[in-house]
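U., I forgot to send this yesterday:
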Amino acid sequence: MSSLPGRFPSLSRALLLVSVAVCLVMIAGCGSSSSAARPTDPPVVPGWKGLQPLPPTAKPDVTLTDTSGKPFDFRQQTDGKVTILYLGYTHCPDICPVVMAQLGRVVEQLPADVASKVQVIFVTTDPDRDTPEVIRSWLDSFSTKLIGLTGSTDAIAATAKDLGLAAPTKDYIDDSGDYDIEHSAVVWAFDAQDNLSHLQYTADTGAADFEHDILRLAQKGWPGD
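Result:
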Protein backbone atom coordinates (compact mmCIF):
# COMPACT_ATOMS: atom_id res chain seq x y z
CA MET A 1 0.00 0.00 0.00
CA SER A 2 1.38 3.36 -0.88
CA SER A 3 1.71 6.19 1.60
CA LEU A 4 -0.67 9.14 1.56
CA PRO A 5 1.44 12.32 1.52
CA GLY A 6 -0.47 15.51 2.02
CA ARG A 7 -3.65 13.90 3.32
CA PHE A 8 -2.92 14.92 6.88
CA PRO A 9 -1.83 18.55 7.29
CA SER A 10 1.01 19.30 9.66
CA LEU A 11 -0.42 22.15 11.71
CA SER A 12 1.26 24.29 14.30
CA ARG A 13 -0.72 24.63 17.53
CA ALA A 14 -1.50 28.27 16.74
CA LEU A 15 -2.95 27.41 13.35
CA LEU A 16 -4.81 24.48 14.86
CA LEU A 17 -6.59 26.74 17.32
CA VAL A 18 -7.66 29.08 14.52
CA SER A 19 -8.99 26.33 12.26
CA VAL A 20 -10.20 23.80 14.82
CA ALA A 21 -13.89 24.48 14.14
CA VAL A 22 -13.37 23.17 10.62
CA CYS A 23 -10.97 20.29 11.03
CA LEU A 24 -10.51 19.11 14.64
CA VAL A 25 -13.10 16.42 14.98
CA MET A 26 -12.87 14.83 11.56
CA ILE A 27 -9.40 15.23 10.10
CA ALA A 28 -9.04 12.91 7.13
CA GLY A 29 -7.57 9.95 8.97
CA CYS A 30 -5.97 7.61 6.45
CA GLY A 31 -8.63 8.61 3.94
CA SER A 32 -9.55 11.31 1.51
CA SER A 33 -12.63 13.03 2.90
CA SER A 34 -13.55 14.84 6.07
CA SER A 35 -16.64 16.18 7.78
CA ALA A 36 -17.15 17.99 11.07
CA ALA A 37 -18.67 15.87 13.82
CA ARG A 38 -19.46 18.99 15.85
CA PRO A 39 -20.08 22.52 14.60
CA THR A 40 -18.76 24.18 17.73
CA ASP A 41 -15.25 25.49 18.23
CA PRO A 42 -13.64 23.58 21.14
CA PRO A 43 -11.97 26.13 23.42
CA VAL A 44 -8.52 25.89 24.90
CA VAL A 45 -8.65 25.01 28.60
CA PRO A 46 -5.98 26.63 30.78
CA GLY A 47 -3.67 24.02 32.24
CA TRP A 48 -4.57 21.32 29.71
CA LYS A 49 -3.00 20.32 26.40
CA GLY A 50 -6.13 18.99 24.71
CA LEU A 51 -9.08 20.95 23.39
CA GLN A 52 -12.50 20.84 25.00
CA PRO A 53 -15.53 19.66 23.00
CA LEU A 54 -18.82 21.32 23.89
CA PRO A 55 -20.86 19.56 24.99
CA PRO A 56 -18.62 16.78 26.32
CA THR A 57 -18.98 13.37 24.69
CA ALA A 58 -20.29 10.30 26.51
CA LYS A 59 -18.53 6.95 26.26
CA PRO A 60 -19.79 4.68 23.48
CA ASP A 61 -22.53 2.31 24.63
CA VAL A 62 -21.37 -0.74 22.68
CA THR A 63 -20.08 -4.24 23.27
CA LEU A 64 -17.04 -5.14 21.17
CA THR A 65 -14.51 -8.00 21.22
CA ASP A 66 -11.05 -7.84 22.78
CA THR A 67 -7.93 -9.46 21.36
CA SER A 68 -8.46 -12.60 23.44
CA GLY A 69 -11.86 -13.06 21.79
CA LYS A 70 -13.90 -12.05 24.85
CA PRO A 71 -16.81 -9.58 24.83
CA PHE A 72 -15.86 -6.08 25.95
CA ASP A 73 -18.70 -3.91 27.26
CA PHE A 74 -17.11 -0.53 26.64
CA ARG A 75 -18.94 1.51 29.28
CA GLN A 76 -18.90 -1.18 31.94
CA GLN A 77 -15.31 -2.30 31.52
CA THR A 78 -13.88 1.21 31.41
CA ASP A 79 -15.96 2.53 34.31
CA GLY A 80 -13.81 4.26 36.92
CA LYS A 81 -10.80 4.50 34.58
CA VAL A 82 -9.31 7.37 32.63
CA THR A 83 -10.01 6.05 29.15
CA ILE A 84 -8.08 7.12 26.07
CA LEU A 85 -9.76 6.05 22.83
CA TYR A 86 -8.60 6.02 19.23
CA LEU A 87 -10.36 4.52 16.20
CA GLY A 88 -8.06 3.39 13.41
CA TYR A 89 -6.77 0.36 11.53
CA THR A 90 -3.57 -1.67 11.36
CA HIS A 91 -3.06 -1.31 7.60
CA CYS A 92 -3.02 2.48 7.91
CA PRO A 93 0.12 3.71 6.13
CA ASP A 94 0.73 6.86 8.12
CA ILE A 95 -1.47 8.36 10.84
CA CYS A 96 -2.61 5.40 12.96
CA PRO A 97 0.85 3.97 13.74
CA VAL A 98 2.07 7.43 14.70
CA VAL A 99 -0.84 7.96 17.12
CA MET A 100 -0.47 4.53 18.71
CA ALA A 101 3.31 4.91 18.97
CA GLN A 102 2.80 8.13 20.96
CA LEU A 103 0.18 6.54 23.21
CA GLY A 104 2.26 3.39 23.62
CA ARG A 105 5.21 5.50 24.74
CA VAL A 106 2.99 7.19 27.32
CA VAL A 107 1.58 4.01 28.87
CA GLU A 108 5.06 2.54 29.13
CA GLN A 109 6.24 5.60 31.07
CA LEU A 110 3.31 6.02 33.48
CA PRO A 111 4.08 5.39 37.16
CA ALA A 112 2.51 2.15 38.39
CA ASP A 113 0.01 3.92 40.64
CA VAL A 114 -1.20 6.00 37.68
CA ALA A 115 -1.11 3.18 35.12
CA SER A 116 -3.60 1.20 37.19
CA LYS A 117 -6.12 4.03 36.71
CA VAL A 118 -5.72 4.37 32.93
CA GLN A 119 -6.82 2.37 29.90
CA VAL A 120 -5.64 3.21 26.39
CA ILE A 121 -7.92 1.58 23.83
CA PHE A 122 -7.64 1.09 20.08
CA VAL A 123 -10.84 0.21 18.19
CA THR A 124 -10.34 -1.01 14.63
CA THR A 125 -12.28 0.61 11.82
CA ASP A 126 -11.35 -2.31 9.55
CA PRO A 127 -12.86 -5.45 11.10
CA ASP A 128 -12.57 -7.38 7.82
CA ARG A 129 -8.77 -7.41 7.97
CA ASP A 130 -8.11 -6.64 11.63
CA THR A 131 -8.66 -9.92 13.42
CA PRO A 132 -7.98 -10.01 17.18
CA GLU A 133 -4.63 -11.70 16.43
CA VAL A 134 -3.63 -9.03 13.90
CA ILE A 135 -4.58 -6.23 16.28
CA ARG A 136 -2.68 -7.79 19.19
CA SER A 137 0.48 -8.25 17.18
CA TRP A 138 0.31 -4.70 15.82
CA LEU A 139 -0.35 -3.08 19.21
CA ASP A 140 2.42 -5.09 20.86
CA SER A 141 4.91 -3.36 18.59
CA PHE A 142 4.06 -0.18 20.51
CA SER A 143 3.16 -1.52 23.96
CA THR A 144 1.72 -4.73 25.37
CA LYS A 145 -0.36 -2.55 27.72
CA LEU A 146 -2.58 -1.18 24.94
CA ILE A 147 -6.09 -2.64 24.67
CA GLY A 148 -7.35 -3.62 21.23
CA LEU A 149 -10.98 -4.11 20.21
CA THR A 150 -12.84 -5.24 17.12
CA GLY A 151 -16.42 -6.14 16.27
CA SER A 152 -18.94 -6.38 13.48
CA THR A 153 -19.25 -3.62 10.91
CA ASP A 154 -22.49 -2.58 12.64
CA ALA A 155 -20.81 -2.46 16.05
CA ILE A 156 -17.97 -0.31 14.71
CA ALA A 157 -20.49 2.00 13.05
CA ALA A 158 -22.41 2.23 16.34
CA THR A 159 -19.20 3.17 18.15
CA ALA A 160 -18.57 5.98 15.68
CA LYS A 161 -22.19 7.12 15.92
CA ASP A 162 -22.00 7.32 19.71
CA LEU A 163 -19.00 9.62 19.29
CA GLY A 164 -20.91 11.81 16.85
CA LEU A 165 -18.93 10.59 13.84
CA ALA A 166 -19.79 9.16 10.46
CA ALA A 167 -19.28 5.42 10.06
CA PRO A 168 -15.83 4.46 8.70
CA THR A 169 -15.87 3.78 4.96
CA LYS A 170 -13.59 1.95 2.52
CA ASP A 171 -11.72 3.96 -0.09
CA TYR A 172 -10.59 1.56 -2.82
CA ILE A 173 -7.20 2.41 -4.24
CA ASP A 174 -7.30 0.43 -7.49
CA ASP A 175 -8.78 -2.64 -9.14
CA SER A 176 -6.66 -4.96 -6.98
CA GLY A 177 -9.17 -4.65 -4.15
CA ASP A 178 -6.71 -2.85 -1.85
CA TYR A 179 -8.27 -0.08 0.18
CA ASP A 180 -7.77 2.59 2.82
CA ILE A 181 -10.31 3.45 5.52
CA GLU A 182 -11.74 6.93 5.88
CA HIS A 183 -12.22 7.60 9.58
CA SER A 184 -11.80 10.16 12.32
CA ALA A 185 -8.28 10.97 13.44
CA VAL A 186 -9.35 12.15 16.89
CA VAL A 187 -8.11 10.84 20.23
CA TRP A 188 -10.72 11.01 23.00
CA ALA A 189 -9.93 11.30 26.72
CA PHE A 190 -12.73 10.19 29.06
CA ASP A 191 -12.75 11.20 32.71
CA ALA A 192 -12.89 8.39 35.27
CA GLN A 193 -15.63 9.95 37.39
CA ASP A 194 -18.29 11.15 34.94
CA ASN A 195 -17.35 8.96 31.93
CA LEU A 196 -17.38 12.00 29.64
CA SER A 197 -14.76 13.13 27.17
CA HIS A 198 -13.89 16.70 28.13
CA LEU A 199 -10.71 16.62 26.04
CA GLN A 200 -9.89 15.70 22.45
CA TYR A 201 -6.62 15.63 20.52
CA THR A 202 -5.63 15.68 16.88
CA ALA A 203 -3.37 13.00 15.50
CA ASP A 204 -0.27 15.21 15.57
CA THR A 205 -0.36 15.43 19.38
CA GLY A 206 2.93 14.37 20.95
CA ALA A 207 3.54 11.94 23.79
CA ALA A 208 4.47 14.71 26.22
CA ASP A 209 1.11 16.45 25.80
CA PHE A 210 -0.81 13.17 26.14
CA GLU A 211 1.17 12.29 29.25
CA HIS A 212 0.57 15.71 30.82
CA ASP A 213 -3.20 15.42 30.56
CA ILE A 214 -3.44 11.71 31.39
CA LEU A 215 -1.44 12.23 34.58
CA ARG A 216 -3.64 15.14 35.58
CA LEU A 217 -6.87 13.27 34.85
CA ALA A 218 -5.68 10.22 36.78
CA GLN A 219 -4.46 12.18 39.78
CA LYS A 220 -7.05 14.97 40.03
CA GLY A 221 -9.85 14.25 37.58
CA TRP A 222 -11.69 16.77 35.49
CA PRO A 223 -12.40 20.06 37.36
CA GLY A 224 -15.76 19.89 39.08
CA ASP A 225 -15.79 16.12 39.61
